[in-house]
Amino acid sequence: MKISQHAMKRMTQRAIKMSDIELILALGTIQPRPGGAVEYFVKREKISFVINELKHIMNQVNRLTDKAILITDNKVKTVYHKHN
User: Fold this and answer.
1) The Cα angle at residue 11 between residues 9 and 16, in degrees rounded to 5
2) pLDDT per residue over 61-73, tens digit each?
3) pTM for this structure?
């Protein structure tokens, strides 16, 4: 996505990073604005939902330590705990 010079200046003034813009675009609610523009904004409820989902994913990832799967011919043959 292209960023106007005006937006770049405002990003600097308001400490908004490109990664913030990417998240707002991904998570935001779309609101039509005059002149064919659209506004993206993230509601508090969406933030809470995403944080809870990320906590769940972090817990899942933590459980994966030393777990392994064995695949042959694109088929999971077995799963096990791998001890080094």
Assistant:
1) 165
2) 999 999 999 999 9
3) 0.70
